[in-house]
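User: As part of a screening pipeline, I want to sanity-check one entry by hand. Below is the sequence and the SMILES for fe (ii) ion. Please return the complex as structure tokens so I can compare it with the automated output.
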Amino acid sequence: MKKTFIKIISLVLVLCMTFPIVATATVGNDVTRVSVTINGDSSTARGFCWYTDEKAVSDLQVAPVGTDLTKAEIISGISYKAMKKYVHKAEAENLTPDTKYQYRVGDSETGVWSKIGYFTTASNTNDEANFIVFADVQASNEENFQSAAKVLQSAVNTMPDYEFAIGLGDFVNDCTNEEWDSYFRNFEFMNMNTTLVPVAGNHEGNLQWFKFNNMFNIGEAKGSPTITGCYYSFDWGDAHFAVLNSNDMYPMSASQINWLKNDMNASDAQWKIVLMHRALYSAGKNINKPDTIIMRNLLLPVIDELGIDVVFAGHDHMYMRTESVKDEKIQDYQTVTEVWNGESTTFALNPDGTTHILPSTAGTKRYGVNEDAIPPILQNSAVARDTHDGGVFATVSLDSEHFVYKAYMVDDETNEKTLIDSYAIKKTERNTVDEDYKELPTSILFTSGQHIITFIKGIISMVLSYFKLLFSLI
Ligand SMILES: [Fe+2]
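Assistant: Here is the complex for your manual check:
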């Protein structure tokens, strides 16, 4: 009996010495907070970000579904310490367009890997895009993250063929390790199964320096700062998306504004879409604040000038969709009804303006309608309401001619979803690039003068706006 025991112990020791990987893997340096994000060309590249508690090697394997992932080339990334943990980043490049990929991230030396995740690259020939939009999860405890995750699970059930998901900022409330762990744990079903398009919110940007950039691996605009978030752009189908950083405030930097102009002018995509956290059109509690007023006065003329079709924003935790607006005035349009994707749909035909959409919140912190919102916000709204009974998500399907938007509220008690709004646009005239457009400078060195002038103009316009608001309230 004693001899058998000694043999077993010896065998265990020999195995541990022969296969140290197994011994190390039991230490528990788990891979957490895994996300795949836009990082360059949506049809050929992705950025990966993940965390470990202890120091580890940053390895990534990516392979088309149906092939052996364990034999895929190991892509080495980088690692550094953040939030008392280790953040890891790696990028996959030269992917094949329109292909479903599997991946895992971890440490090939210790053999500790994440679960297998999936994403699909955009087609470089197809004009379609199908995506989910949500705003302001902004939870601070497990229960509220679970509640928001249910809303997004309903979104995935509603659009199972979605290709990417846009999060309009404020993923967490206080930016603590506990909150981020809870967010990634509850949203793993989405973050590890699609491409995420994160927008920097004030809860992970203002006074939370570098937190947004430490949580996602995004290819920010060349030379742009990442202190309070980041701005970047990408194409999917026949749409061009510019993701703004509205933490870059007081007012938005001239560098970012010039970048937006250069970026949008360089694209001939049929749909031009802006994603940002702070809303330009909202009847929420933040809309009359000085920072928002300055941003509105600065950005709305730029949105008009660039012919942006739709702006999606968050921040104000209420639901709003404007009419098609330009120069702060409602633009009339004709409608056409036709069957698209098997559904009879009424489309706004070639509207000459921008639709601003604030899809309330996927979370549980919800605000009412601010009846004193600075004019003409409520006057220009098609829908302005609270969503006190449930969290909200939106879906968009588009091709070169059609843009179909739907918003749903998921009831807190029953978990049933209700369509609360829909809007569709049909465009028959093709966008073209202005060949005579001259690139504007984006370096802070060459835009500081412009920024000072914009700042002074912003303050003056803010004072005038407050006078306007005062007169509207008298
Ligand atoms: Fe916010």
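Points to compare against the pipeline: DSSP finds nine helices and 26 strands in the chain. The domain at 129-426 is CATH 3.60.21.10 (Purple Acid Phosphatase; chain A, domain 2).
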